[in-house]
């Protein structure tokens, strides 16, 4: 294991942020202020540290090194550990929303902080896990996604998004000029429906009824209802509403990142109307060292779409992929201000499309 790979432990610092906010409250910091501390770190400090710590464009030197890295169990265990840690953190945050002396502003900060961290520890980790073979990792990924109520992502992402990425048929690929707000709303509404449709089609091909235990969407729905019932019995309606709301925030956080990852990029059709094969040219890449540690190299998204089964520790940086000007934390904030986003990104999309002989989409 390389020394640089110890950086992936930074993901657990994200899990510690609500605990640190709670500690600040107990130390005398105004609760309504401390509740916003995790967001200030993620969207304020992390982009700054991305600049200070620089970029990491290194790749495995050869296939033998890549295979050695892929075989090291330590990398897998890190992602497995995130699931129970996230579930414990969710329980902690749910309890605190009902006991801390928070006003409306503080409650909003605590909710947004929890949901944002859920986007990192639940959805991002689940994204790594559901792509893997076997039973354990997809199961862990499904549990993590269910904890934020976005379990349809497991189906739609694998069977929908990875097939249709960078085409008009993919709801999770933003068009050039599209604002993040309608994009996120459309994705949150459409993707669960698409997941249901894809699952029904799978069952029909196997001659099985949609309303049966074979339906994965129904199984995850039942687990989510059990989680909601447990939250209600333990913390009352306030905890139940928090459980639902943090899931919506986490899911919306994911879709903002989807917006960033594929904005304006399109695959072209051949003479027969078929889309070109997905390559590392159809997703935005970012090489900021810290954010790649925090997100298990999700920012090497170009290589992920070209080689979806590759584990995070062996994903490659491609210099000819479209490059984001900063890491995902900074791009997330930028996306929330559409005029500034378009000023920064639209000319990059057009320039890259022109270099790649791809028509820009207006």
From TrEMBL:
Major site of localization recorded for this protein: membrane
Localization (cell): Cell inner membrane
Annotated Gene Ontology cellular component terms: plasma membrane
GO biological process, one term: lipid metabolic process
Lineage: Bacteria, Pseudomonadati, Pseudomonadota, Gammaproteobacteria, Lysobacterales
Domain of life the protein comes from: Bacteria
Pfam families reported in the protein's UniProt record: FA_desaturase
Descriptive protein name: Alkane 1-monooxygenase
Entry keyword set: Cell inner membrane, Cell membrane, Iron, Membrane, Metal-binding, Monooxygenase, Oxidoreductase, Transmembrane, Transmembrane helix
Domain Fatty acid desaturase: 110-332
CDD domains, per the entry: Alkane-hydroxylase (cd03512)
UniProt family annotation: Belongs to the fatty acid desaturase type 1 family. AlkB subfamily.
Native species: Oleiagrimonas citrea
